[in-house]
Amino acid sequence: MALVGCGGFIGSHLLKAILERTSWRVFGVDLDSYRIQEHLANDRFEFLCADLNERSVVERLAQFPVVVNLAAICTPSRYMAEAATVIRSNYDHPARLADACAKSGSWLIHFSTSEIYGKTAADSGLLDEDSSEITFGPVTASRWSYATAKLLTERYLMGLDGLRWTVVRPFNFVGPYMDFMPGVDGEGIPRVLANFSSALVRGDALKLVNGGAAKRSFTSVHDAVDFMFRLFETGAAAEGQAFNVGNPDNELTIAELASRMRVIFAKIKGVDESLVPQPIVVDGEEYYGKGYEDSLRRMPSVTKAEKILGFRATTPLDVVLEESLRWFVDHYQVVVNPMVAE
Ligand code: UDP
């Protein structure tokens, strides 16, 4: 099989699981390989440092019977500052890959996003793959550059003659190796979990955008990997479908997330919670830039994945948060505080 974006957060977990649980050969493409160093010498894995901008790479990928595409620019602060680049990465590149797969007959499993549900209100109900109405902010609100490009890609795949496709819509996947630490191995503002983890490791206050009233339901990346195996096993019956992959049992506000993470961080470090700085409130446009808007609730319906694939995410929120935060602390504390290494 071919895995585009095999070096990213989700891709690296999926690659590891495939190499451990199956005897498949994997052709992986990414611009970055730091998360997958341990697999580079595996003779069932071939790595190519490239992106979908290269026609020869796209042609080669489409020779594989199954192509999973995880490659995307998905850093929220870039949606405002680099909209054109974000759109190229999230529409042009996957559309090119889809064209090649339609010709060759490969099954394309494309990672979209729960952001395609747009600017959801605080009282919005379950988001359903095939019937939810979608509203975006105005064209000037650049936040939606990512979501609209992803949505256009979905429509393109659905309309492309001869393409065998499945769309996956992740709902806030979290776990080890997610995103980056600003100023250490990336620039800009990563998604909320990495951002809160960075602040905790640095001893800074967690920043609650517009008060932290928005709600998200967080999903363990390990559940997401199990979903993918159910998809591979199900095969043809999963083609021509978009699936939400999320955990509706793990919903909370961002302010509640900050509280939980402060408690877990204090436990990991063995210190009293009162020593961890209190969160502060920041204005969304000041923090992210002009054109920032938010989805106030993003709650998946997961009945389709249950019915067709027999899949339901099971990892509880505190387990996900503790695993992610422990990984972040271990991985970055030496960088931030070299004294720890001595
Ligand atoms: N957020 C926050 N503080 C941060 C980063 C994000 O309050 O340091 C908020 C953000 O405004 C949104 C939610 O957390 O309401 C989730 O944002 P994220 O960037 O993780 O991605 P999204 O779920 O919006 O795609």
Describe the structure.
Helices cover 40% and strands 15% of the residues. The protein is built from eleven helices and 13 strands. 44% of the residues are buried. Uridine-5'-diphosphate (UDP) is lined by residues 76, 115, 172, 191-192, 195, 207-209, 212, 214, 216, 254, 294.
Please outline the major beta sheet.
7 strands, parallel
State the helicity in percent bands.
40-55%
Shape: globular
Q: What's the N-to-C terminus distance?
A: 44 Å
Extended strand count: 13
Bound molecules: uridine-5'-diphosphate
Strand order of the largest sheet: 3-2-1-4-5-6-11
Number of contiguous helices: 11
Average pLDDT figure: 95
Strand proportion: 5-15%
Low-confidence stretches: 338-342
Give, in order, the helices and strands. EHEEHEHHEHEEHEEEHEEHEHHH
Given helix and strand content, the structural type is alpha/beta
Radius of gyration: 20 Å
